[in-house]
Write a structure and sequence with these properties.
Strand content: 15-25%
Shape: globular
Strand order of the largest sheet: 3-2-1-4-5-6-7
Order of helices and strands: HEHEHEHEHEHHEHEHEEHH
Length: 322
Amino acid sequence: MVFFGFVSLFVSILLVTVLGHLLLWRLRRCMKGVCVVVLGDIGRSPRIQYHSLSLADAGFTVDVVGLGGSKPLEQLREHSSGNVHLLTLGELPWLLQARFIPSLLRYVLKALYQHMQLLLTLLFLTRRPAHFLLQSPPAIPMLSSVWLVCLLTGSRMIIDWHNYGFSILQLAVKPNHPLVFISKWYERFFGRLAATNICVTKAMREDLADNWGIRAITMYDRPPAMFKPTSIENRHELFLRLSTQHSVFKSESSSAMIGVETAFTKENDGNIELKSDRPFLIISSTSWTAKIGISSWEKYPWCDLSITYDHLLMLRQSSLIQ
């Protein structure tokens, strides 16, 4: 009886503490507070980091919640306002990553673990924000976790749609797999419960409206102030370094002097100039390897740059590129 009395007392104290915390949140909610959440590496989520920077620059108190790994932007880590608070979620326990556990069970256990992890972090470690801004996907279990927190605290949930989680899941399992059906239902259900939905493209906005009845606002990506044109001197220096590693960056001129001329730039009387006959230089944010053996585009069909390569060959053959 004494044991059950202690347990009852502990549960009562815990319940009162949680209810008191939720009441304090509702009474003293930070109206200019935003919690930005991504269930991925914060340092590899540029749009989330730019959202956080823009909000902090506008005077908002910003809590950024996500996974660790790579370093976030220095401007975010050392924001002059001091209003940015980075919260890194812990890694999954080794048991939830063990290969001897069936994949479906491992997926369910991982979702439950991250759900509790998010609930505790958002409820007790953030600074009582009035808004939660999420990047989806990943959607499971983030959408339900944040929705529950908003239900308890009276805050508002805003979803930034980049893609559909179920469509990415289809690439790993069969399209008719039960997980795909559950993921699709989950995203549609909780997406409709958001106070506001935003997305990156007009096509995504129209698809959300036509298929799920979700009205979203298109917010196109815009480069932050840190991005600016590279000076011709820096470009020349870069091409010189690359020319020592890749012959394609070397000048094809037989009279070109090493360290003075590249395929794109040349030095003339101490001044750096762009060559008039320089080739095109295309930079992609994704990876590509040749169609020989097992290549990245075969494993990841959404990174198929062979389409671009084939069309460049067609343009060259049609004399549009000399």
